[in-house]
Amino acid sequence: MVRGAFTDENFLKYLDTFTKLEFPTVGLMLGQRTDAKDFIIHFTRTPPYRGDAEQSIKKFADVPDSWVADHARHVTRMLPGGMYVLGLFVVCQEDIFATCVPKLKAMLSQIHKRLTPNAFLYGTPQQTEKLVLHYSQLSRYVCKSYNYDTFSLSNAEIKFQSNLAVKWLQVECKYELDQTFPIIAERANWPLKKHMNEILHLINMNLQTAVYFLDGEIKDGKECLETIGKKQKSHLRLSQLEDENKLMQVTIVLPMGGDVAPEVEILNSGGQIRLTGHVASKVWLHPKATVQYASDAIMQDIVRSLAARLEMHWDSLLEEEHGSPEDTNSVHETPRRVLINLPTTKVTLSDYLFPGEGSQEAQISLSELLDITIAQPDAIFDVEGQPDIPEMTLEGPEADCDDILASSTNRKKYIMGLVIAFVVLIISLLIHFIKG
To answer: Which GO terms describe its biological process (predicted)?
Structure first.
């Protein structure tokens, strides 16, 4: 069966602009995959290579695989849950399917290797295929599908349609966090990044076993979202039927443990990490998506967003804080989430802004990573807002903790705060390091 994909015909003009260049252009196709077909929502050129070989890229074989793979990783951070890098497009005069198959396979394998190890980014869909589109100066295009299991290319079909009629369904969720994670003494000297990866793993596991309420009700996981929407409309008054952009709201109920009481083990405490706040989540799903797909997409969106901004925060730190002989109380703000409308669809992608950054910084990253120009700053929606830092300082229960820990004269305390979004993700890290 030939794999099929659908996208807007305006992208033909976008691809055609690269045929006038003397060097090959490589980029990514982004969208949502279904069992039967793919919906491509955006094409984005990989930024020109910056390096010693920048001037020597004259043919497709010269394009560094790692450069394209790194672009795929950065773009995946910006995608809502349920959306993926669906494949590559290449604009050049060479017949890449005749002369460059080993290079294509190497580049696709590099993308797969870059996205697969980071499970929190959810960079790889369940299907093991990626699309490859070759576009030439004669406005002819050929599409293939690459299978990672068989390492083979097969025929695929992509259709560029005018007014592509995909009625994307919007599903929103506000995921609230207010949880304290104990740190055993043996792990007290772990770096912050390692602690947070452990916590991300726990959050990921909890979300996988959580119960998802859609518009306040538990739905059959196999039920189609489009069918649910039609049932709801049949109970509405005529004046309410005009609202075609009605949002579906998801409420997440996390598991509280099994019926059997767990075994109790007493361990020496080396501190605690406290997370409190919320993550604004919004995903876009094709009409045939099921309730289970929607739940998975929300779960992926939350974990992907947390992982993306934490990774950006770690990359921005010059060095990790390890406390001081005296008590320290510091707050680290991680990037907040903003949403951006794509030019050809109402689907929104994400960008992340550090404290003090505004729409201007978002415009720069969007131009580089998504190859789009946002003329109006109001097209960038700050859905989480700036956190109120004074309210994030440690008070109440944490103050009692200080009294208890003060009796340990041979240890020093380390308190760290990490803020994500509106009141999103504060990490209060109290760690005792054993001297000597």
So the answer is: intracellular protein localization
Contact predicate 63/88, CB 8 Å = no
Q: Which residue has the tokens 């604009």?
A: 91
101 and 198, same structural domain?
no
For 6, other C-beta atoms within 10 Å of its C-beta total: 17
- N-to-C CA span, the chain: 66
Q: What's the CATH number where 94 sits? A: 3.40.140.10
Long-range contacts of 390-393, Cβ-Cβ distance < 8 Å, separation of 24 or more:
391/423, 392/331, 392/417, 392/419, 392/423, 392/426, 393/329, 393/331, 393/417
pLDDT one-digit tens code per residue, 190-215: 888 888 899 999 999 999 999 999 99
116, 303, 316 from 119: Cα distances, Å: 6, 9, 21
Quick check: helix, strand or coil at residue 11?
helix
Question: Is the same domain home to 248 and 337?
Answer: yes
Phi/psi at 277 (5° precision):
140, -160
Residue type, 370: L
Helices (H) and strands (E) in the chain, counts: 9, 19
Sign of CA dihedral 62, 65, 71, 72: positive
